[in-house]
Amino acid sequence: MQKGEFDFVATSMTRTRVIVKKSSGITSVRQLSGRKASSVSTSTGGNLKEVVPDVKLVTVRDYAVAFAMLKEGKVAAFTTDETVLRAIVRQDGEQTGKREDYLFLPDFSKSRNVGFAKKKTSRA
Description:
23% helix, 28% strand, two-stranded antiparallel ribbon, alpha/beta
């Protein structure tokens, strides 16, 4: 803050996950090789390329669009923070009554540690 009321700022932690439609038959992140996966441009979805370098990551403006691409079969997977994915799947299940349509791929989870920042003049 500009008023100098805080000595440091902490960011939240994130754990990137990948979901697919259960009906796709995809059970491993490696099966995404050469396929498309949606993600949000501000997300950590790029972590998927570390494991599957030839996945075709399609970045869009928001989570609703990225999820819609998966629902409509335009991409094989949707990757972003696990908390966001779980909320989207839960909300979709409440609207459609089909909570079991999606699978969190068990062989991919990428964590990123918390980050801290402080002013140079701070003694904290």
